[in-house]
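ok trying this again, last paste got cut off
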Amino acid sequence: MDQALDPEVAVLDVKKSAKRLAKIFATRAVANDENDRFVEEHYADLKSAGLIAAGVPTELGGGGASVRELCEMLRIIAGACGSTGLALSMHTHQVAIPAWRWHHQNAARPMVEPLLRRVADEDLVLLSSGGSDWIGGSGKAEKVKGGYRITARKVFTSGAPAGDLLMTGAISEEDGERTVLHFGVPLGAPEVTVLDTWRTMGMRSTGSHDILIDGLFIADDKIPLRRKAGQWHPAFQMIATIAFPLIYSAYLGIAESAREIAVGIAGMKPTSHRTQSIAGRMDTALTAARLAQNFMIEVVERNAPSAETVNDVMIGRRLVEENTIQVVELAMELAGGASFYRKTELERRFRDIQAARYHPLQKEAQAEYAGAMALGHPVDRIF
């Protein structure tokens, strides 16, 4: 049995810590949201609780939590503060992916172990450039002696103010081919600037600012992966399979908390068939979201990333998106006019849940990918 699935005590500690911190985060969420303020205090608390290193194997100094346990952690935290849950999910999946490789790919251990040890020893916060670095890639990598000179602007970089290392890439055009190079970017480098750009409808406290990379040198031996731009690679099948159950746990947590608020408000009103119907539709949608989320986790637990697991995870991602949005909309309806007041904290969850729409694969690409799989057509350029 894999160590990450074995030590029950460590697993319970992760969940217990998440519940304890969620109570604290809930008291700060309103002010942070209203002032577009990054959840900096929450990152300090997450480090103190060991949750930054929760996904690192215990042999390497971390919490040893599995993907399922990490999803539970993120769901609990996002129920209290959606911004913290989502930002943490971006770091957590960047830890969970090398941890999965450490457990399941012996040949990869020498490559991923140093990073995992640093996360555990230094509370290193990893950033993802996410959608801006999807299958097509972004940014320019110019070949120079000994490596590449990188120029890029990365958007949607959640947790940027707290980040230490940006896991990203850039496109090199050599011999008529576009190749995406993958590497880590130290946020402390003088060529790297976090731009204050995050002013949004929802998820206002994630600190998902643009990051400008202006002439950063990356040595050849610091580029662990090279792949064709605009085409699925086995590494991205692994990334997509593992990352999205974690990311969408945050949205499930938001929907669950919206449901609890709405039921509390509705419980103070006279009973009616209308409110019963709305509540029933809300709980039906929530159950659908939970089932889809659990399905995504089960796909990860197959431990066999492929084009097929990407398809299954993206179907689950789409179902979680649609149903969590529906849950929050119905929660607003169930609570009635009270939901329009900020003090009920439903409107913040309504704004935050909208972000579920914008992660890959968005619905048209997801439907095309699923359709191609069903018909036996190639999917390597559908993203």
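PB: full thing came through this time. Residues 132-228 form a domain with the Butyryl-CoA Dehydrogenase, subunit A; domain 2 fold (CATH 2.40.110.10).
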